[in-house]
Design brief:
With 241 residues, the chain is α+β, with helices and mostly antiparallel strands. It is built from six helices and ten strands, in the order E-E-E-H-E-E-E-H-E-H-H-E-H-H-E-E. The strands form three sheets. It has a four-stranded mixed sheet. Strand 6, helix 2 and strand 7 form a beta-alpha-beta unit. Helix 1 crosses helix 3 and helix 4 crosses helix 6. The two termini are 31 Å apart.
């Protein structure tokens, strides 16, 4: 999937968390308010802009940009939850639609603040989930790790720069090394043909396509570095990083 648009439409949201400019106030950008510093991102599947409440929410959106099967990401989805006989409005931070027809809702919180939200989400699952979608989750920094976000961001960048020649060069170099080699050694082997920055994008393109992988049992929670092992998918090796 290729995407790179500066003209994305504003995405649907049941709650507007943006500040509006008013004649009697400073421009939004100058107010130094927590709301004025919201994160704005783009969902590549629907080409819509999303206004998010935190960097952690933006990290989750980054993961969904590259997750197979996602067809749309929305922010601020409104539901109702009954607590002690009284109905309360609640907004899920992220709503995701999948190509298999499933819809999932995500409440994003720091681990230390997650317990209360877990109770609310459990009430929603029992009361109203069937009227809105299929799954509801609470996501914390344990689920949205910095290495996973970085991995997703690198894949998005690689999709924009995808080059079959460079991809093929990295792949052939890795095959000549036996199908498994440290990343830095692959870069050294082809540095006179393409610079490491270009080879880096090619590596992520191949990872995205499932041709090669970061060869470590916990690769999704680790940063890919020069000393990391990469491997052609299908060529197993018992050695670890």
């Amino acid at each position: 999937m290729m995407w790179d648009s500066t003209y994305a439409e504003t995405g649907h949201a049941d709650r507007n968390i943006a500040l509006r400019n008013r004649p009697d106030l400073k421009p939004v950008e100058e107010r130094m308010n927590i709301v004025s510093n919201r994160v704005v991102d783009t969902d590549p599947h629907s080409n819509t802009t999303l206004r998010l409440e935190s960097a952690l929410e933006a990290g989750l959106v980054a993961l969904f940009k590259v997750q197979p099967g996602v067809i749309a990401v929305m922010a601020q989805y409104q539901v109702e939850i009954c607590i002690d006989g009284i109905w309360h409005t609640y907004w899920f931070d992220i709503c995701v639609d999948f190509e298999n027809g499933c819809r999932a809702f995500y409440a994003v919180r720091n681990e230390e603040n997650a317990e209360e939200v877990e109770l609310l989400v459990e009430l929603f699952r029992n009361q109203e989930l069937k009227n809105h979608g299929h799954f509801a989750f609470v996501m914390t920094e344990e689920d949205i790790s910095k290495p996973a976000i970085y991995r997703a961001e690198q894949i998005v960048q690689a999709r924009r720069k995808d080059n079959k020649r460079n991809n093929g060069l990295v792949y052939q170099t890795l095959m000549q090394a036996g199908g498994r080699e440290r990343l830095g050694n692959v870069f050294l082997a082809i540095q006179e043909i393409i610079p490491p920055s270009v080879a880096w994008d090619a590596v992520w393109s191949l990872i995205d396509q499932g041709v090669i992988c970061h060869d470590h049992p916990d690769a999704h929670n680790l940063f890919l570095k020069n000393h990391s092992w990469i491997r052609v998918v299908g060529r197993e090796n018992d050695e670890e990083e």
